[in-house]
Design brief:
The chain is an alpha/beta fold and 303 residues long. The chain has a single domain (8-301), classed as Rossmann fold, CATH 3.40.50. The chain has helices at residues 51-54, 85-98, 111-122, 138-147, 153-158, 164-170, 173-184, 195-205, 208-235, 257-265, 284-287, 289-301; strands spanning 10-16, 19-26, 33-37, 59-63, 104-109, 127-133, 243-248, 274-278. One of its GO terms (molecular function) is hydrolase activity.
Amino acid sequence: MPADLFPGFTSHWIDLPDGRFFARAGGPEDAPPLVLLHGFPQTHACWHRIAPALTRTHRVICLDLKGYGWSAAPKGDPAHRDYSKRQMGREVVAVMERLGHVRFGLVGHDRGARVGYRLALDEPGRIDRLALLDIVPTVSQWQTMEREPDAYPHWRFLAQPAPIPEQEIGKNPIPYYEDLLRLWTGSGTLDPFSPGALDLYRQSWNVPERIHASCEDYRAGAGPDRAADEADLAEGRRLAGPVLVLVADRFVGRNGLDPVRQAWTGTFAPENTVFEMVSSGHFVAEENPGATLPILERFLAGS
């Protein structure tokens, strides 16, 4: 990775039962710890425009989730539990503990946000502050897709049984993933992404094991992730807070903030959840860091 993407950050390889995980860490070692979790189809590089600024107040850890970037990409189990957000949350905890942090703040985007809220529901004592970028709960997402069969087609495609999506993507993986990025940006182009970050994304996209891993991630979304949400809903469980939900006005928030607020307050969000919207496509940390960063800074500071 070009050094200027994460100036002053150190690289860490952490061995866990599922393999070796990669993270970058920066900021004062005695500052409050904060983990940043990326989404699909990206890597920790998606944070390069805001992570350095967050080191002014935090010890920032940018982690490649299992199956993405430079972290392990195991085959997984037939029930897709290995790629469930519950298991991935446990791995985040294990990485953070290895780096010396038992309790920490968490900012997650897309799939990383799903890992984040599942971890916060399963182990509320771990999370100081939780920021969820441009998602609604997994159970709400599936309910939307059931009402609107044409919504979010990549969820259904990637969740198909192996090796159907793997073989289709594998025919020409880089154009497939690049088309998704274009589709989800506000501009409909790759212009919001730096060349260095795109190079890292492309490295990951070209690896068959990582193509399979991303499909397993979505198969878990259709199976154990949705089941975990439904079980928590039945028990009336809520996130402990403080919680920030930040959405893009040209993606999850394209119909306004009210539907997003209803999805969260009707499921897991506590009463004092902060809801914010920025002008952006889906990739808020790269498309509009100028608006995203101060919102995160205020939230993380408790103001």
